[in-house]
Amino acid sequence: MQAFPPVYKNSLLQKMCARDVALIEPHLIRCAMPLRMGIERSNVPISSVYFIEAGIASIVAKHLGRDAETGLIGNEGMTGASVVMGGDRTPHECYIQMAGEGMRIDAGPLSDALCKSPTLRLFLLGFVQSLYVQTGFTALVNARCNLHERLARWLLMCADRTTDGRLGITHEFLSVMLGMRRPGVTIAVQVLEGMQLIRATRGLIEIRNRQGLEQIAASAGYGRAESEYGRLMGLHPAAQYASAQQL
Amino acid sequence: MPKYFFHVRNGDELIEDPEGMELPNVVAARAEATQAARDVVAERVRFGSNPKGDAFEIWDENGLIESVSLRDSFSS
Question: What percent of chain B is helix, strand and coil (3-state, nearest 5)?
Answer without folding.
Answer: 30, 35, 35
